[in-house]
Amino acid sequence: MIDSIPVKRCSKCGEVTPNPSWCNRCTLLYQALYREAHLEERREKQRKYDKDHTRERNTYYEAHRDEYRDRKKQREDQLRKNTFRRYGEKCACCGSTTNLTIDHINGGGSKHREAIGLGARAAGIPFYRWLYRMYYPPGYQTLCRRCNTSKGKGADAHCDLTH
Fold it and tell me: What is the pLDDT averaged over residues 121-142?
């Protein structure tokens, strides 16, 4: 009976998929590339909407402030968990599971964050959000804060990785 089900393939990569056009991976990649290509257009549209709807949003927010904060905290916690699941839930250097950060393997993290519009000192949730939107690209690793700081300063006396 299974032989009678037609095989559908992604028109981009050729992977077998239940969707007749694109597989999930190709769809997510296309969406990420589209967002990057139309960033200014999307920002301008959002600015106009924000300007036109500020009063209504502020009134609603004031009435539901605690719900907003709770939902935001839940979303950020889930984003953090997903990011560390993807890149590792312990330090790649010393094995610590506390004070974890995401590190650019080849260095240059502040320059990269500046180039993608987050600001050189932006880290944490804004950067995790960018990683999610880019479908968790390679080139990053989990390090504890101590190892990440020592890597940045070049002092790797306590680290197992060569920096």
Answer: 92
